[in-house]
Amino acid sequence: MLPHAQLFPLAKLGDDAIGFLSVAENKSLPFPVKRVYWTYLTPTTVVRGHHAHYELDQLIFAVSGSIRFELEWPGGHRATVELRDPSQGLLVSRQCWHTMTFTEGAILLSLASEEYQEADYIRDYEVFRALPPLV
């Protein structure tokens, strides 16, 4: 994945009278999903993340509230993205250092390309900064 913030829209079915439904199926996603997790009840004063992954890609949604992402890729390219539409995800690619702040009541849903492996995490910012730029 090239270093940029890539938004990934899902179909938004329904209307204001009945509500909406969005569906994520492997055939319509940028990778097969091997793990799903969600983060909730995060205090607004907490900044989560502070890591990157060597191999894992994630498609992240704010299914409730909004979540602000600060992103950085090897080589120093940076972006800020705020998710607030539950039908639009953010593709957080491998080797993307990210932090997240949540509004009150925000719920993050992540579709991940790999199962959990602690060895895939880059938790030391200096180790991340030493990675060669992506091409």
List the topology elements.
Blueprint: E1 6-9, E2 13-15, E3 19-21, E4 35-39, E5 47-53, E6 58-64, E7 67-72, E8 78-83, E9 88-92, E10 97-102, E11 107-112, E12 121-122, H1 125-129
Question: How would you concisely characterize the structure shown here?
Answer:
The chain is mainly β and 135 residues long.
Key features?
135 residues; mainly beta; Jelly Rolls; five-stranded antiparallel beta sheet; 1 helix; 12 strands; 4% helix; globular
Walk me through what this model shows.
With 135 residues, the protein is mainly beta. It has a single domain (6-129), classed as Jelly Rolls (Sandwich). The chain has one helix and twelve strands. The chain has one helix at 125-129; strands at residues 6-9, 13-15, 19-21, 35-39, 47-53, 58-64, 67-72, 78-83, 88-92, 97-102, 107-112, 121-122. The strands form three sheets. The protein has a five-stranded antiparallel β-sheet, with no helix packed on it. A five-stranded antiparallel β-sheet has the order 8-7-10-5-12. It has a two-stranded antiparallel sheet with strand order 2-3. Strand 2 (13-15) and strand 3 form a beta hairpin. It is globular and about 50 Å long. The termini are close together. The model has no long low-confidence stretch (mean pLDDT 94).
